[in-house]
Amino acid sequence: IITVVYEIYYYLKCDLSKFFTAKLIKNFMIVSFGLIAIFIILLSYFYNPNVNILNSLNNILSYRLSFSYKSFDYYGITFFGQNLILSDSDPYYLDSIQVVRFIPLDSFYIWTLVCFGIVSLAIFAFCSAIITYKSISNGVYKIAIALFCISLYALLENFISSICFNVFYYMWMMSFHKR
């Protein structure tokens, strides 16, 4: 763990402008949030347990593909989302709210798509692309790298938008200031 932390520290201290001068890398970083979202949504939507590679990937991802597939089956996809209570924190229904089907949605992309709709996910991906583009253009490469890591992390966790857990995403204004 110490070696990994040191390597990350070393690479962040070096001059990253050479890394981001390649157009392919720069463009990939800009659209990475949207590409990752499309990738996991398509994998989840077309999930089939009879396909060996998808079943293996589902096992690696702790059954997240099958849960996402079930959420698409139960709730569907809408443009502006639905009022869903995706929590089992009150098993005795003390709040008089009964959860009919509890499905653990651990992927931020699937959670946003099911609960808030296509429009919200598209706005989030567009804003992430703008922030990444501005940060690379202004030479603030650490923000672009952090957003890329967060977009990868969003595959497995759904609290990317919670400021309690993810304060780095809300530091986006730093990308609009030059060094």
Summary?
This protein has 179 residues and is mainly alpha-helical.
Class based on secondary structure composition and strand pairing: mainly alpha
Q: Mind telling me the C-alpha Rg?
A: 18 Å
- Average pLDDT rating: 75
Roughly what percent helix? 55-70%
**Oligomeric state of the chains present here:** single chain
| Strand composition percent | under 5%
User: How many strands?
Assistant: 0
Distance, first to last CA: 31 Å
Poorly predicted segments: 90-98
Spatial shape: globular
The major pleated sheet works out as: none
Give me the strand/helix succession: HHHHHH
Number of helices: 6
Explain what this protein looks like in three dimensions:
It is a single chain. This protein is mainly α. It is 55% helix and 0% strand. It has six helices and no strands. It has helices at 2-13, 23-45, 52-60, 64-75, 108-137, 141-153. α2 packs parallel to α6 (141-153) and α5 (108-137) packs antiparallel against α6. It is globular. It starts with a helix and ends in a 26-residue tail after the last helix. The model is unreliable at 90-98 (pLDDT under 50).
Name a few traits of the molecule.
179 residues, 6 helices, 55% helix, 0% strand
Helices, strands, pairings?
Layout: H1 2-13, H2 23-45, H3 52-60, H4 64-75, H5 108-137, H6 141-153
Helix pairs in contact: 2-4, 2-5, 2-6, 5-6
